[in-house]
Amino acid sequence: MPDSKRYLRPEVTARIRRLELTARRVVEGFLTGMHRSPYFGQSIEFLQHRQYARGDEIRHIDWKVFGRQDRLHIKQYEEETNLRLTLVVDRSGSMAYGDGEANKFDYASSLAASLAYLSLRQKDAASLYAFDTEVHRSVSSKSNQQQLNRILSVLESVGAEGRTDLLAVAKEIAQGIPRRGLVVIFSDLLGVDHLVEGLRLFRQRGHDVAIFHVLHDDELDFDFNGATRFEGLESDAFLNCNPRALREGYLESLRDFLEQTRKSCGRLSIEYMLVRSSDPLDAVLANFLTTRQSMPKLRR
User: Fold this and answer.
1) 115-139 residue pLDDT tens
2) How far is residue 282 from each of residues 160, 179, 207, 210, measured CA to CA in Å?
3) What pLDDT shows up at residue 35?
4) Structural domain contains residue 173
5) What three-state secondary structure class fits 131?
6) What is the tens place of the pLDDT at every residue in 209-232?
7) How far apart are CA 121 and CA 123, in angstroms?
8) Distance separating alpha carbons of residues 276 and 287, to the nearest angstrom
9) What is the domain range of residue 72?
10) How far apart are the C-alpha atoms of 290 and 276, rounded to whole Å?
């Protein structure tokens, strides 16, 4: 359980409040003029057939069965109107890069908070896992009014340090999710061990999976000039160099890495979004949610 005394400190509660206000601003801005629901997409499970009865909606008739048996049957569905949203936030050392609002971990936390706020606003259940090589902190799935503050408190408290191992984390998290839902991962994917295996595990469990690949402008553009010392955030390694001499080779390697990541996600039917930590949060959220509105059910 969180240390309540810690979160009662004025500076801590102020940061939590700012994170909440950011989430509310982003979500309410997106919802302005939007009337379609649910925003994450509704999960619909096929249950069984039953014989057609007068008054049944014609659109539910299974015409393939009619063609084989010359009888009218209705498809029955079990509608999971309450989505189970699982937020998985990378809190490894590389996520600490960036200043102010462009800090990758803070940016990822704001995105996660926005999705949590939206999920709870539409009465869905939300949970949170902050991970490195294991689950560091978590908030179990609930849909009550106190859940947002629980999630915000953990996001404020965990910080970013250490390395990552998505496969070990996926195994741990998958055991804690009782039924299919939407798993959203926020990570820079740098130094993430066993990425594909971890993602595949979530998909094998039947979860819909989305990734926000969060990178800083410096990592995407490599606009460094003059003698520079690069220091590892997840190791003690460092490099003194002229970045101009490395830029072309670095950007080529980055393009290969991003392309391989996109293809891996595509093969697993995972939504992949590359975002800069300088991108407006509301624009990123709108892009993600409008895409999900065109997806009426979980993909296998």
Assistant:
1) 998 888 878 899 999 999 899 999 9
2) 24, 30, 25, 17
3) 43
4) yes
5) strand
6) 999 999 999 999 988 887 778 876
7) 5
8) 14
9) 43-80
10) 19
